[in-house]
Amino acid sequence: MSLSSVKRILEKANLVKHRKIRKAAPDSSRLRKRILPEACNDVWAIDFKGWWKSDSEICEPLTVRDLHSRFVLEIRLMESKTSEADRMVMTELFLKYGLPKVIRSDNGTPFASPNGILSLTNLSAWWITLGIIPDQTDKGKPGQNGSLERMHADIAAEIEKKVPGGRRQNQAVLDAWREEYNTVRPNEAIGMKTPADLCTTSKRKYQGDFDDLEYPPGFLPRKVFNNGTIALFGLRISISYSLKGLTIGLKEIDDGKYHVFLADFLLGELSSDLCCFTPLENLESI
User: Fold this and answer.
1) Range of the domain at 256
2) Residue 17 lies in a domain
Protein backbone atom coordinates (compact mmCIF):
# COMPACT_ATOMS: atom_id res chain seq x y z
CA MET A 1 0.00 0.00 0.00
CA SER A 2 1.34 3.46 -0.94
CA LEU A 3 1.96 6.24 1.58
CA SER A 4 -0.75 8.36 -0.04
CA SER A 5 -3.29 5.55 0.44
CA VAL A 6 -2.30 5.20 4.09
CA LYS A 7 -2.69 8.94 4.55
CA ARG A 8 -6.19 8.92 3.01
CA ILE A 9 -7.27 6.07 5.30
CA LEU A 10 -5.93 7.87 8.38
CA GLU A 11 -7.60 11.14 7.36
CA LYS A 12 -10.98 9.44 6.94
CA ALA A 13 -10.57 8.00 10.43
CA ASN A 14 -9.71 11.49 11.77
CA LEU A 15 -6.34 10.18 12.91
CA VAL A 16 -4.27 12.80 11.09
CA LYS A 17 -3.50 16.05 12.86
CA HIS A 18 -3.19 18.80 10.26
CA ARG A 19 -0.49 21.38 10.91
CA LYS A 20 -1.74 24.93 11.33
CA ILE A 21 0.20 27.19 8.99
CA ARG A 22 -0.29 30.92 8.75
CA LYS A 23 0.12 32.47 5.31
CA ALA A 24 1.91 35.77 5.81
CA ALA A 25 1.44 38.84 3.61
CA PRO A 26 4.60 40.90 4.26
CA ASP A 27 4.61 44.57 3.28
CA SER A 28 7.71 46.72 3.80
CA SER A 29 5.56 49.87 4.11
CA ARG A 30 3.87 48.46 7.21
CA LEU A 31 6.16 49.81 9.90
CA ARG A 32 5.64 50.03 13.62
CA LYS A 33 3.79 53.22 14.50
CA ARG A 34 2.13 54.43 17.66
CA ILE A 35 -1.50 53.49 17.04
CA LEU A 36 -4.34 55.34 18.75
CA PRO A 37 -7.32 53.24 19.83
CA GLU A 38 -10.41 54.19 17.84
CA ALA A 39 -12.42 51.08 18.69
CA CYS A 40 -12.49 48.28 21.20
CA ASN A 41 -9.58 45.83 20.80
CA ASP A 42 -7.50 48.25 18.74
CA VAL A 43 -4.96 48.52 21.56
CA TRP A 44 -4.55 46.56 24.75
CA ALA A 45 -2.14 47.75 27.43
CA ILE A 46 -0.21 45.31 29.60
CA ASP A 47 2.08 45.78 32.59
CA PHE A 48 3.09 44.53 36.01
CA LYS A 49 2.02 46.72 38.87
CA GLY A 50 4.49 47.03 41.72
CA TRP A 51 4.29 44.29 44.31
CA TRP A 52 3.29 44.28 47.97
CA LYS A 53 3.21 41.66 50.72
CA SER A 54 0.25 40.06 52.48
CA ASP A 55 0.94 37.53 55.24
CA SER A 56 4.51 37.18 53.96
CA GLU A 57 3.32 36.32 50.43
CA ILE A 58 4.25 38.57 47.51
CA CYS A 59 1.32 39.97 45.54
CA GLU A 60 2.38 41.21 42.10
CA PRO A 61 -0.47 41.87 39.65
CA LEU A 62 -0.24 41.46 35.90
CA THR A 63 -2.81 43.89 34.47
CA VAL A 64 -4.30 44.05 30.97
CA ARG A 65 -6.68 46.78 29.83
CA ASP A 66 -8.43 47.76 26.60
CA LEU A 67 -7.51 51.39 25.93
CA HIS A 68 -10.66 52.35 24.03
CA SER A 69 -13.34 51.09 26.42
CA ARG A 70 -11.08 51.28 29.54
CA PHE A 71 -12.29 47.73 30.27
CA VAL A 72 -9.94 45.88 32.63
CA LEU A 73 -9.44 42.51 30.98
CA GLU A 74 -7.36 40.97 33.74
CA ILE A 75 -5.70 41.56 37.09
CA ARG A 76 -3.78 38.38 37.90
CA LEU A 77 -1.46 37.92 40.84
CA MET A 78 1.51 36.09 39.35
CA GLU A 79 3.92 33.70 40.98
CA SER A 80 6.28 34.09 38.02
CA LYS A 81 7.09 36.87 35.53
CA THR A 82 8.44 34.59 32.80
CA SER A 83 7.27 34.70 29.19
CA GLU A 84 5.77 31.23 29.65
CA ALA A 85 3.66 32.31 32.65
CA ASP A 86 2.44 35.46 30.89
CA ARG A 87 1.71 33.50 27.72
CA MET A 88 -0.67 31.24 29.63
CA VAL A 89 -2.60 34.26 30.91
CA MET A 90 -2.68 35.89 27.47
CA THR A 91 -3.91 32.66 25.88
CA GLU A 92 -6.87 32.68 28.29
CA LEU A 93 -7.65 36.30 27.37
CA PHE A 94 -7.37 35.63 23.63
CA LEU A 95 -9.78 32.71 23.94
CA LYS A 96 -12.25 34.85 25.90
CA TYR A 97 -12.02 38.21 24.14
CA GLY A 98 -10.35 37.50 20.80
CA LEU A 99 -7.18 39.13 19.41
CA PRO A 100 -6.33 42.84 19.64
CA LYS A 101 -4.54 44.67 16.85
CA VAL A 102 -1.83 46.05 19.16
CA ILE A 103 -0.47 45.26 22.61
CA ARG A 104 1.29 48.19 24.27
CA SER A 105 3.81 47.64 27.05
CA ASP A 106 6.74 49.34 28.68
CA ASN A 107 10.33 48.19 28.11
CA GLY A 108 10.43 45.79 31.06
CA THR A 109 10.62 42.02 30.99
CA PRO A 110 9.08 39.84 29.72
CA PHE A 111 7.46 42.24 27.21
CA ALA A 112 10.67 43.77 25.90
CA SER A 113 14.36 42.96 25.94
CA PRO A 114 17.24 45.43 25.67
CA ASN A 115 19.21 42.75 23.81
CA GLY A 116 16.47 41.54 21.49
CA ILE A 117 15.93 42.65 17.92
CA LEU A 118 13.54 45.64 18.09
CA SER A 119 13.33 44.78 21.82
CA LEU A 120 11.39 41.61 20.97
CA THR A 121 11.11 38.74 23.43
CA ASN A 122 9.74 35.22 22.97
CA LEU A 123 6.41 36.60 24.23
CA SER A 124 6.13 39.59 21.86
CA ALA A 125 7.43 37.50 18.93
CA TRP A 126 4.56 35.10 19.61
CA TRP A 127 2.13 38.02 19.43
CA ILE A 128 3.48 38.86 15.97
CA THR A 129 2.85 35.32 14.71
CA LEU A 130 -0.80 35.83 15.70
CA GLY A 131 -1.01 39.11 13.78
CA ILE A 132 -0.68 41.38 16.83
CA ILE A 133 1.71 44.35 16.71
CA PRO A 134 3.82 44.82 19.86
CA ASP A 135 4.19 48.51 20.73
CA GLN A 136 6.66 49.51 23.44
CA THR A 137 6.50 52.91 25.06
CA ASP A 138 9.58 55.11 24.91
CA LYS A 139 12.06 54.52 27.71
CA GLY A 140 11.39 56.70 30.73
CA LYS A 141 7.92 57.67 29.43
CA PRO A 142 5.40 55.76 31.60
CA GLY A 143 2.81 58.41 30.72
CA GLN A 144 2.52 56.81 27.27
CA ASN A 145 0.69 54.02 29.08
CA GLY A 146 -1.07 56.49 31.36
CA SER A 147 -4.45 54.75 31.41
CA LEU A 148 -2.90 51.68 32.99
CA GLU A 149 -0.79 53.76 35.38
CA ARG A 150 -3.90 55.56 36.69
CA MET A 151 -5.62 52.23 37.28
CA HIS A 152 -2.55 51.03 39.16
CA ALA A 153 -2.80 54.10 41.37
CA ASP A 154 -6.41 53.17 42.18
CA ILE A 155 -5.34 49.63 43.13
CA ALA A 156 -2.57 51.04 45.32
CA ALA A 157 -4.98 53.36 47.11
CA GLU A 158 -7.83 50.88 47.60
CA ILE A 159 -6.30 47.40 47.91
CA GLU A 160 -2.51 47.34 48.23
CA LYS A 161 -1.39 46.31 51.75
CA LYS A 162 -4.99 46.45 53.00
CA VAL A 163 -6.07 42.82 52.57
CA PRO A 164 -4.82 40.06 54.91
CA GLY A 165 -4.86 36.40 53.92
CA GLY A 166 -2.04 36.21 51.42
CA ARG A 167 -2.17 35.93 47.65
CA ARG A 168 -5.39 33.90 47.48
CA GLN A 169 -7.47 36.39 49.43
CA ASN A 170 -5.95 39.36 47.60
CA GLN A 171 -6.84 37.72 44.27
CA ALA A 172 -10.46 37.30 45.38
CA VAL A 173 -10.64 40.97 46.36
CA LEU A 174 -9.03 42.06 43.07
CA ASP A 175 -11.53 39.97 41.08
CA ALA A 176 -14.43 41.69 42.85
CA TRP A 177 -12.77 45.09 42.41
CA ARG A 178 -12.30 44.49 38.66
CA GLU A 179 -15.96 43.52 38.29
CA GLU A 180 -17.07 46.70 40.04
CA TYR A 181 -14.58 48.82 38.10
CA ASN A 182 -15.89 47.48 34.77
CA THR A 183 -19.62 47.36 35.42
CA VAL A 184 -20.49 49.88 38.15
CA ARG A 185 -18.07 52.80 38.20
CA PRO A 186 -18.69 55.47 35.56
CA ASN A 187 -15.54 56.62 33.80
CA GLU A 188 -15.06 60.29 32.92
CA ALA A 189 -12.77 59.44 29.97
CA ILE A 190 -15.64 57.64 28.21
CA GLY A 191 -18.45 60.09 28.92
CA MET A 192 -19.36 58.74 32.37
CA LYS A 193 -20.27 55.35 30.95
CA THR A 194 -18.91 52.15 32.42
CA PRO A 195 -16.21 50.20 30.57
CA ALA A 196 -18.63 47.28 30.21
CA ASP A 197 -20.98 49.56 28.25
CA LEU A 198 -18.38 49.89 25.50
CA CYS A 199 -16.48 46.62 25.66
CA THR A 200 -17.02 44.10 22.86
CA THR A 201 -15.15 40.96 21.90
CA SER A 202 -12.78 41.11 18.94
CA LYS A 203 -13.88 39.91 15.51
CA ARG A 204 -10.43 38.36 15.18
CA LYS A 205 -10.85 35.07 16.98
CA TYR A 206 -7.99 33.11 18.51
CA GLN A 207 -7.98 29.57 17.17
CA GLY A 208 -4.71 28.37 18.58
CA ASP A 209 -1.07 28.90 17.72
CA PHE A 210 0.47 28.28 14.33
CA ASP A 211 2.88 25.42 13.76
CA ASP A 212 4.69 27.42 11.10
CA LEU A 213 4.62 30.57 8.96
CA GLU A 214 4.35 30.43 5.18
CA TYR A 215 5.65 33.23 2.96
CA PRO A 216 4.66 34.18 -0.61
CA PRO A 217 6.59 32.98 -3.68
CA GLY A 218 9.87 34.84 -4.06
CA PHE A 219 10.60 34.84 -0.32
CA LEU A 220 13.29 32.68 1.22
CA PRO A 221 11.88 31.05 4.36
CA ARG A 222 14.48 30.36 7.03
CA LYS A 223 14.02 28.64 10.39
CA VAL A 224 15.74 30.41 13.29
CA PHE A 225 17.88 27.93 15.23
CA ASN A 226 17.90 27.77 19.02
CA ASN A 227 21.06 29.90 19.11
CA GLY A 228 19.31 32.72 17.18
CA THR A 229 21.02 32.13 13.82
CA ILE A 230 19.81 31.14 10.37
CA ALA A 231 21.55 29.28 7.56
CA LEU A 232 21.88 31.18 4.27
CA PHE A 233 24.00 29.99 1.34
CA GLY A 234 26.15 27.88 3.63
CA LEU A 235 26.66 30.72 6.10
CA ARG A 236 25.37 31.16 9.65
CA ILE A 237 23.98 34.65 10.27
CA SER A 238 22.91 35.87 13.71
CA ILE A 239 19.34 37.21 13.87
CA SER A 240 17.90 37.01 17.40
CA TYR A 241 17.58 34.44 20.15
CA SER A 242 14.03 35.69 20.79
CA LEU A 243 12.95 34.27 17.41
CA LYS A 244 14.23 30.74 18.03
CA GLY A 245 12.06 28.07 16.45
CA LEU A 246 10.18 30.56 14.25
CA THR A 247 10.35 30.87 10.46
CA ILE A 248 11.33 34.25 9.05
CA GLY A 249 10.97 35.35 5.44
CA LEU A 250 13.71 37.00 3.37
CA LYS A 251 12.72 39.20 0.42
CA GLU A 252 15.59 40.21 -1.85
CA ILE A 253 15.64 43.98 -2.46
CA ASP A 254 19.09 44.21 -4.06
CA ASP A 255 21.88 41.84 -4.96
CA GLY A 256 22.75 40.14 -1.68
CA LYS A 257 20.43 42.37 0.39
CA TYR A 258 17.13 41.26 1.91
CA HIS A 259 14.25 42.64 3.92
CA VAL A 260 13.66 40.34 6.87
CA PHE A 261 10.10 39.64 8.02
CA LEU A 262 8.47 37.77 10.85
CA ALA A 263 5.01 37.07 9.45
CA ASP A 264 3.83 40.53 8.22
CA PHE A 265 6.20 42.42 10.50
CA LEU A 266 9.32 44.02 9.01
CA LEU A 267 12.32 43.38 11.25
CA GLY A 268 15.20 44.90 9.31
CA GLU A 269 17.72 44.27 6.56
CA LEU A 270 20.17 41.44 5.97
CA SER A 271 23.34 41.51 3.89
CA SER A 272 24.55 38.11 2.78
CA ASP A 273 27.82 39.68 1.55
CA LEU A 274 28.63 41.07 5.01
CA CYS A 275 26.97 38.17 6.84
CA CYS A 276 25.15 40.64 9.07
CA PHE A 277 21.62 41.64 10.01
CA THR A 278 20.66 45.26 10.76
CA PRO A 279 17.46 45.83 12.78
CA LEU A 280 14.96 48.37 11.51
CA GLU A 281 15.64 50.82 14.33
CA ASN A 282 19.30 51.07 13.26
CA LEU A 283 18.58 51.77 9.59
CA GLU A 284 18.49 55.34 8.33
CA SER A 285 15.66 54.45 5.97
CA ILE A 286 14.02 51.36 4.64
Assistant:
1) 212-282
2) no
Please identify every stretch of the chain with a pLDDT value under 50, giving residue numbers as ranges.
3, 6-7, 10, 16
5 domain residue, yes or no: no
Size of the chain in residues: 286
Q: How far apart are CA 142 and CA 210, in angstroms?
A: 33
Please check whether residues 124 and 238 belong to one and the same domain: no
Q: Which of 83, 56, 93 is nearest to 170 (CA)?
A: 56
Q: Which amino acid is at 264?
A: D
Tens digits of residue pLDDT in 51-108: 999 999 999 999 999 999 999 999 999 999 999 999 999 999 999 999 999 999 988 8
How many degrees, rounded to 5, is the angle at CA 116 between CA 105 and CA 284?
95
Q: How far is CA 199 from CA 43, 75, 266, in A?
A: 12, 17, 31
> 152 near 269, Cβ under 8 Å?
no
Number of domain units in the chain: 2
Strands 235-238 and 102-105, sheet pairing: unpaired
What was the pLDDT predicted at 7? Answer: 44
